[in-house]
């Protein structure tokens, strides 16, 4: 698992984005410019555009999942990624069929699906979410933009997870949530490796996420373990209430 943190740096030659690996190696990713209207080369300095550039960077190596902890950011994030990736070279008939089935209920999701981009969050109908999941399992998608509705419990071949708007570092359980994101990359029986990219604004934010990545994962329990412990505690309490006859 390759875990990276993206952040911005201002230098004498201007501002640029950096990808920092957990091993301590930093790589200059791309130049930044103030906005989309600014002249010259470079990626517009905003989280959506920078995420879209990272998605495009890794999309040729397998499915990229772009995650947002806040679903209100999803629409503009989808728009930025779709603009950056452009239209696919060929129309996929399987995607067209899946899109046609949800056209009436979720026209925007259907449009994105035809372009090889899945959209998945709680406000989308269940049938549309299933269509996105099916397309992901069939390896028909270039990118899925989602909240935790897709990352938790739905298995599909994923190479890269980009945490565009990750869980806030001060809102927990922090380590468990970021480890859950990392666990999605490389899953699905197709890839032997994967990567997690956490997006942040500056070096200070990058250091916080680096500390979280290195932290020990807190102990967790399965539902079965909790149920067994409850039964054991209940049984012990009942035994304690019994009167034991003298012999």
Core attributes:
9 helices; alpha/beta; 247 residues; 9-stranded mixed beta sheet
Describe what this molecule looks like in 3D.
By secondary structure, the chain is an alpha/beta fold. 40% of the residues lie in helices and 21% in strands. It has helices spanning 47-58, 74-85, 93-101, 107-114, 126-137, 148-151, 174-184, 203-214, 223-241; strands at 2-11, 14-21, 26-33, 43-44, 64-68, 117-120, 143-146, 160-165, 195-199. It has a nine-stranded mixed sheet with strand order 4-3-2-1-9-8-5-7-6, with helices on both faces. β1 (2-11) and β2 form a beta hairpin. The radius of gyration is 22 Å and the shape is globular. The N and C termini lie far apart (64 Å).
Strand content: 15-25%
- Per DSSP, the total helix count is 9
Rg, alpha carbons: 22 Å
The whole-number mean of residue pLDDT values reads 83
Order of strands in the sheet with most strands: 4-3-2-1-9-8-5-7-6
Quantity of strands, as a count = 9
Which geometry do the CA atoms define? Answer: globular
* Helix fraction by DSSP (H/I, runs of at least 4): 40-55%
- First-to-last CA distance: 64 Å
Q: H/E series, N to C?
A: EEEEHEHHHEHEHEHEHH
Catalogue the unreliable spans.
none
Reported for the largest beta sheet, the result is: 9 strands, mixed
* Class by alpha and beta content: alpha/beta
List the helices and strands and how they pair.
Blueprint: E1 2-11, E2 14-21, E3 26-33, E4 43-44, H1 47-58, E5 64-68, H2 74-85, H3 93-101, H4 107-114, E6 117-120, H5 126-137, E7 143-146, H6 148-151, E8 160-165, H7 174-184, E9 195-199, H8 203-214, H9 223-241
Parallel strand pairs: 1-9, 3-4, 5-7, 5-8, 6-7, 8-9
Antiparallel strand pairs: 1-2, 2-3
Helix pairs in contact: 1-2, 3-4, 3-5
């Amino acid at each position: 698992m390759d875990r990276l943190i993206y952040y911005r740096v201002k230098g004498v030659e201007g501002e640029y984005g950096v990808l920092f690996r957990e091993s301590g190696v930093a790589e200059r990713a791309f130049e930044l410019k103030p906005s989309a209207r600014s002249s010259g080369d470079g990626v517009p300095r905003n989280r959506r555009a920078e995420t879209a550039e990272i998605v495009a960077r890794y999309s040729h190596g397998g499915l990229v999942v772009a995650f947002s902890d806040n679903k209100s950011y999803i629409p503009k994030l989808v728009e930025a990624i779709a603009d950056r990736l452009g239209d696919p070279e060929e129309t996929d008939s399987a995607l067209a069929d899946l899109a046609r089935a949800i056209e009436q209920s979720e026209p925007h999701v259907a449009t994105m699906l035809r372009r090889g981009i899945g959209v998945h969050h709680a406000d989308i109908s269940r049938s549309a979410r299933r269509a996105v999941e099916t397309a992901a399992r069939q390896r028909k998608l270039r990118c899925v933009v989602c909240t935790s509705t897709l990352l938790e419990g739905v298995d599909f071949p994923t190479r890269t997870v980009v945490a565009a708007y990750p869980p806030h570092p001060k809102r927990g359980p922090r380590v468990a949530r970021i480890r859950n994101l990392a666990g999605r990359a490389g899953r699905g029986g197709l890839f032997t490796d994967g990567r997690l990219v956490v997006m942040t604004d500056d070096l200070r934010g990058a250091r916080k996420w680096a500390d979280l990545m290195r932290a020990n994962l807190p102990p967790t329990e399965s539902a079965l373990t909790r149920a067994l412990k409850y039964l054991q505690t209940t049984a012990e309490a009942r035994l304690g209430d019994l009167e034991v006859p003298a012999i």
